[in-house]
Amino acid sequence: MAEIPTTASAPVDTTEPAAPTTGRTSEPAVLVLEDGKRYEGRAYGARGRTLGEAVFATGMTGYQETLTDPSYAGQIVLMTAPHIGNTGMNDEDEESARIWVAGFIVRDPSRVVSNFRSQRSLDDDLIASGVVGISGIDTRAVTRHLRSAGAMRAGIFSGDAAALSHGEQLALVQSGAQMSGRNLSGEVSTAERYTVESTRERVGSVAVLDLGVKTSTLNHLAERGFDVHVLPQTATADEVLALEPDALFFSNGPGDPGASDRHVDLLRTVLREGVPYFGICFGNQLLGRALGFGTYKLTFGHRGINQPVLDRATGRVEITAHNHGFAVDAPIDRVSESSEGFGRVEVSHVDLNDNVVEGLNCLDIPAFSVQYHPESAAGPHDANYLFDRFRDMVIASKESKA
Fold first, then answer.
1. Which fold has domain 185-401?
2. pLDDT (tens digit, 9 = 90+) per residue, 197-210?
3. Where do the coiled-coil regions begin and end (predicted)?
């Protein structure tokens, strides 16, 4: 074991470090929605212009996990909580190697960062990552509008871009890409395969298709006794099966599941080989399509850490973390038969706000999925048990084969 250096003889600096402050300015900025709505505020983060799909996230905590979640690629995220940035940023809570949001909207950036774990301010990271943001607007009004009209294309303009005419800004927004039909997994996936070794008594190995996987997901799998082989989204079924994994896992990720037919075909091939499967978020939508169900775009989606979901098997209501704009179109009132030959399928979880399908359970093959995020590093942790359920399913599958 390496010797721990001692600093006992070093002089002790008792001066309190000054609390870092955020970059609040009076520089103008404007948020423009594709239907012509405009909201004027102050520049926040990097200066310039950015385009994306405007969505709102309802979490009161966890803004760092939100920003670094690859599922938010291509989206301008509005935080409904009014006060953002007070705990700063650190290297431990990153869900990936970078910030992925296309833009960031807050009402009131914290004036001072105050937390013992903070290493820098949120504004510092937004600027370093080139993320254009806006503050000082009525985020409640924008949220109510998006809730009624639906998520839509938007743009944030600051710096020189704030001086563009209203017509020029709106034209840029309306020329932006729609989220429907977009395959974004190639932008967020790892380029090379890597392995995270088990941190508990080994259960087996799991092949993880990285469609935008989060660090906390990999940690949960390793803590359940899995050697985790993370594969780029370009992996083929032959490459997955060559690993002889004890299970397959599809991660969360951005984009339209209807534009990921290659991943659906991969999943069908591996399922037919009897490999147990667990998918979350995007992985739930892809399982739905692999089983023969359709998917559709929600009006404004589910994003935040306070979504009530019913586990229909236990009758337990879980408060869960979500980030999805698409959902599986499967009947919730009966057990269905997979049109692709995978047997009986039931909807295992339902959102209590709008009856959206939040989970699928295959009754004749070892496969299940949920639409939300059981890893939820920022909390709540009601759904962590799903990783235990996955481990138990893999153990039972190995025993039956033996």
1. Rossmann fold (3.40.50)
2. 999 999 999 999 99
3. none
